[in-house]
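Quick look at the format.
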Amino acid sequence: MNYLQSLFIILWTIWNHRNQVVHEGISPNPMKVILTVQTLSCKYSNAFSNQQNSNLPSSRPEQPTQSAAGPWQLIIKVAGFRNKKKNRRAYVYEAVNTQGDCMFFGVNNSLARTAPGVLLEAMVKACLIAENHVLHHVLFLSDCRGFVKVFNSRRASDGQDNVRLADINFLVLNGFLLRITSSPITQAEALIKWKNSLSPSSSLNSWYPTNLNNLCNWTAIVCHTTGTVSAIKLSDANLSGSLTQFDFTSFYNLTHLDLNNNTLGGSIPPAIGNLRMLTYLDLGNNQFEGNIPTEIAQLTELQYLSLYNNSLNGTIPYQLSNLQKVWYLDLGANYLVCLDWSNFSGMPFLTHLNLMLNELTSEFPEFITSCQNLTYLDLSQNYLTGPIPELAYTNLGKLTHFNLTNNLFEGPLSSNISKLSKLIELRLGNNNFFGPIPGEMDLMSNLQILELYNNSFQGMIPSSIGQLRELQSLDLQKNYSY
């Protein structure tokens, strides 16, 4: 491997200084060339080390935050060819700017042994030319699914291809922002394949093979300026089938997937983790079953996640709490369990959390008290026990909707509940709370709904409840208060 590293560094240096000679008429200083080689040796060794440990997320070079739509400076189409008779491979690439003007193109033979390797070689070659134009934000389009998969996973079965991936890591370390997605034609073919696996639906009438070149005008499809799919919006589309034939690897730049309120079933494929640019995922109101795949936690750009009202079971993966950009999380109305919340972490942007109507046991989930931006919390219709922790009152002061109905919560209701002064709805009915109703209820002056029914509250009903001028619904029945 050291020989290949050294060879790459020397060729890179020669290329850069050749450009000075050809384009600028500058004769390179020999000492500067030597220093460049030494500098590149350090950087390239780091890139190659990253590639060797690419199975560890932390080893991959971090890229700047970038939306899937750009802004890209170049869009480069790459394709590979193989002459079976002569056992030769070649590649071609064409680079256009965002206005569609051709910036450069090229055709070269390749020594790569695999189709993805040929295109990785083309990618490096095209990036070297882009460097001459001082263009570093590049989106690649390809029809080769293997190439897309190898690049996005940063892993290859062929040793030479892993070296080429190290070259790409080197480019990233030196300021390149690189993304790759399937071409519009490949995406259209993938959607047709999925459509054919579903029951017929009039919502997909525009999806047909003779209309592949018109992808961006298909029903429910939204495209980037690159012509690739950015959103699939198929809520209430009368779809019946599964996601088994959906080729997630062809939609790396997809940012929005909405399949709400259909009759899709089966399991949620682990391959959904390939949608790395996804910010919105709604699979609610369907018939999905089985476990929630932990691969969803790989969707680190996700902001909205709803799996509401399916038949999902098993343990809620603690990895979901690693989705630190999520503000809306709805796992309600399933058959999910969680015996241990200790591995969950706080979610700083979470404002809406719904875990209602599952089979949750144990005490109040501790991680929730670290989600200090929550405005909506629904844990109703589970089997949760114990008291409401004091941290819930002190840390969740932004709550407007708080629902613990139909659980096994117990203990006295702390007077600190008045710190939840922004509450509009407080629903604690059908639990095992006891003791007096706190007298400071009037401090929650925005309350419109107050439900404390079917508990064991005792003593006088505090007069402060009469000061709640916004109150529209009050239910205190089946207690021991008077």
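Next, a different chain entirely:
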Amino acid sequence: MCQMTYKTRRSKHHLMQTLADTPGTRMKLTIFLTALLAVFLTPSLSDDSVSLTNQGNDGGSVHQTVNIDNAKNIANINTNAGWNSWNSIWDYNTGFIALRPFAKKSCYIHRMNKNVVPNIQELARLTKEKKDHKGPAEAPPRSLQYTVTNTKADNLKQYGEPIDALCRGVPSYVAQEVQGDSFFAFGGGACVKAGLLFILDISVCGGVGF
């Protein structure tokens, strides 16, 4: 009886070993272990996601989601405002911001003005304060204006992988910051409002694709 039990256990072990050695089983095991590892690693990553909603000028609501990846120094801003919806990537590693409006089949890339744009830690704090209605009394948001040039951003990889992924497949152009009277001289025509609700107003105007 003991000999039969030993043989049975050894047979089961041999069967399990054989199944583990098959390519399909090894692949499933690898996927399972990878997913399990991700579950344990996720709490160690410091990420922030904040949703903001505001009443638009046309009476409709503007819903904005700010996703911040502190490990990669990336902020992803999604704005749902009907035809005026847009997506933007703020890459603090390369120092560039990319904007892809829903209504336009193009992408606009400009340098990040770090004297005006909050750093990634400040961005997380400000968005949470606005959501929770905490902090000091509301102050007018700071503003930046850009005009789109005829310069095409052909090598998207130089702006970082996240911007490359956002703008790939559509014509991409470089936008440059303009200030004061220069904005009215070069920034005529239609504009895309692509700022953070209550925090920062960004206008990208004129040029190609408008």
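The radius of gyration is 25 Å.

See the schema section for token definitions.
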